Amino acid sequence: MYGTIFNLEVKEGCEQELIASLDKLENPPGAVAFFLMKPDKMRSDLVGVAVFESREAYVKNANRPEQHENFTNMMQYLVSEPAWNDGEYLIGKIS
Q: Which SUPFAM superfamilies does the protein's record reference (predicted)?
């Protein structure tokens, strides 16, 4: 599995709109899971986790025109571009 963990610095007053926008997105081909977390110790930041079947599926999704549209839409709610940490997931379990 491959994917990214990313930090989102949300504009003040835009958190619920961002969450609603992300929640309505359909899972792209090759997607395994998506999580969005609000850490206890961060007021304006959210942390996202995207998991794909493979690096190839992740890259293919990144190059989809729909993904660019999703990113552009997401940016209206953010202070700056997300900090991305891409890599291979070595262990993954969901109960």
A: Dimeric alpha+beta barrel (SSF54909)
